[in-house]
Every structure is written in C-alpha cells, then in structure tokens.
TrEMBL record:
It comes from the Eukaryota. The chain crosses the membrane at residues 384-407. Belongs to the endophilin family. Keywords: Coiled coil, Cytoplasm, Membrane, SH3 domain, Transmembrane, Transmembrane helix. This is Endophilin-B2. Residues 286-306 are annotated as: Disordered. SMART domains: BAR (SM00721), SH3 (SM00326). Residues 24-291 form the BAR domain. Signal peptide: none annotated. Residues 155-182 form a coiled coil. It is found in: Cytoplasm. InterPro entries: AH/BAR_dom_sf, BAR_dom, Endophilin_SH3RF, SH3-like_dom_sf, SH3_domain.
Amino acid sequence: MDFNVRKLAADAGIFFSRAVQFTEEKLGQAERTELDAHFENLLSRADCTKNWTEKIYGQTEVLLQPNPGARIEEFLYEKLERKVPPRATNGEILGQYMLEAGKEFGADTPYGSTLIQVADCQRRLGGAEREFLQTSSISFLTPLRNFLEGDWRTISKERKLLENLRLDLDACKARLKKAKAAETKAAVRPRAVPDFQETRPRNYVLSASASALWHEELNKAQHELRVAQTEFDRQAEVTRLLVEGISSTHVNHLRCLREFVEAQAIYYNQCHQYMQELQKELGRACTSSSVGDSDPANPSAVLPLNSPSPLETDALQIEEVQPPASGTRNAKVLYDYTAADSSELSLRADELITVYHMPGMDSDWLIGERGNQKGKVPVTYLELLSWICYCFEMLPLFFALVCVLLWNI
C-alpha cells in the first residue's frame, strides 16, 4: 500500500495544532470566535432533537418488540442486508397451542370446544398485532431511524468541519496578532550607534531586514486570515441551512407520530372487537349448555319469553329470603361499598350489620340486614364479630344510654 508521507505528516501537524488550540481555549489562554445567538439556538435545538429522537426510537423498539434477543437478531439481519425471517407473534403461538390442546381433548367436550374458540380469537389477535407492528415500523420507526442515520450524520459531519475551521480561524487570528506585535517592536527598536568606518552601518541593515521580514510575515498572516474567514463563513452558512431544516424534521415526525397513534387505535379497537365477539360466543355456549342440561320433561326448566332477567330474579329471591333461626352473626363494615344492583346492599364504613349465609350462595357473599334493608354484601368488606367482640363494640353505645338516663334522673 502506497502511503503519502508528506500528506500524513501535514495532517498530523494540523491535528496537533488544532488540539493545542482547543486545549488553550478550554484553559482560557486563547481567544475563541463565538457564533451568533440565533445560530447557537439552532444548534442547541438540533442537539435536543437528536437526543430525544434517540430515546423515543429506542423505547418504541422496546414497546414493539420486548424481547431483546429478537431485537438483536433483527439488527444483525438489517446490517447484513438480509430479509428478516417471519416470526409468529405470542398470540399466534398461544392460539396454536390452544388449538392443538382442544383437538386432543376433543372438540365435542366443553373444555375442548372452548379452547378451540379461544384459540381462534388468539390467532386473530396475533394477526392484528403483526399488522400493527409492520405499520408502526414503516410509518414511525423508519423515519426516526432515517433521521438519525441520514440527516443527523450529515449535520454532525458539517458541524465537525465548522469546528475545525473555527480553530484554524482562531489560530490565524493569533498569528496575525503576533506578527503585528513583532513588526511594531522591530519598527520602534532603537538603533545602535553606526560604525563610521563602514559606508552603511551593519545594525541599520539588520534592523531594516528584520522589519521587512516581519512585514512580509504580517502580509502572509493577513492573507491566511482572509482565506480562513472566507472558508469559515461559507461552512457556517452551510451548517446553518442544515440545522434550520430541523423544523421540517419536526413537521415530518409529527405526521409520523399521528400515524403511529392511528395504528395503535386501530389495533386496540380490533382487539376489543375480537374479545367482545369471543365473550358473546362463550356466553351463547354457556346458555346453550345450561338449556341442554335442563330436563325437557320439566316445564319449569323452560323459561318463558317474558321471564325476568337473572338479576331481577336474584333480587326477588333476596327480598323473600328469611334469616335462619340460628347462624346469624354481627359484622363490622371495614370500607364503604356501593351496591352494583338492587340485589346488593350499600355499606358505610364502621357501621354494624347482621349477616348470615344462605344455602347455594357463593362463599364470597353473605346476606346483610340493616333495619328494613336487605341485600348481598361482600365478605371482604366485613369483619365478623363474635359475641364478646360485639359486646365491646356496643359498650360506647351502652355507656351513652346510661349517661342519658342518669342525666334525665
């Protein structure tokens, strides 16, 4: 391999001088050319856009693909410029397992048929998820990645070039300042007494030569400064145009964000619709199984068309419930509870009610009574009291009654 030694040495020298200039600026030993305030604001806005775009892009990737191994695999395929193999979603895999289990248990059994129904729903949910992932990747992730890997790399490259030209400009300003000081010093330096044995004094000749030399150095420094200033101004204008394009980037990202939200809304709406359909199917299956299990010879097993709903029947039964002769207990309400329907009893914290259990009731519920009111109450909202605890709970009321009687006497 053929190396250009001169070019390599020149580049190394330029790099070293820039490093020295940058270090002196950081230490406050050299002047620095400052950009205008508007340009600085544009650069700060560009940095802010880049930082937040990186964070949003990374977290969106995590949202769409929580598995880090799968993300690394997709990254490697992308770098190798190969197509990512199709991968089933978690919902599709779950649906496949349920379908196979339902077939093995038997489609004519309640559990097997329900597994098959749920498997079909999971498969559709997985398909909707796959479509959402593809749409979000194209409409949202790709524009963000294109900005980071395309526009921002160009901006970073031009900003780095602008910084190097600024360092060169400051170095030229320092050389010009040094040349001016040296020329002024050479011009005002007192000349030594001339030697009259010579037609032209040697000190005078040396002084004139030094002055001419520094004048030439000054002209050279001024020329280099003009060139450096021109290159810096041109590069600053190029960089300014690029960072002003951040506004267009924001507009583009806003459009992509709206498309991402729209894709999310469509996906969740589909999931809600599929789950509602599944609930209706399972509800119809439960109803048909209940009717199938009833005795056709029993006329009471067949409900009339105008029969009350289960909630109304439950409410009527609760109104007609009579407390058992034994087994009632007192309970203290721990939290407020609002009745969901007319079959339940609303509760207030710290009040005392009478509760009892009826045969056939769910173990999580009891029948509660408070005066003339009656209804179902959840067990988790109650603290069942023994006779002794009930006496302690009633002690304040007893003392209050005693005090009232003594006061009246």
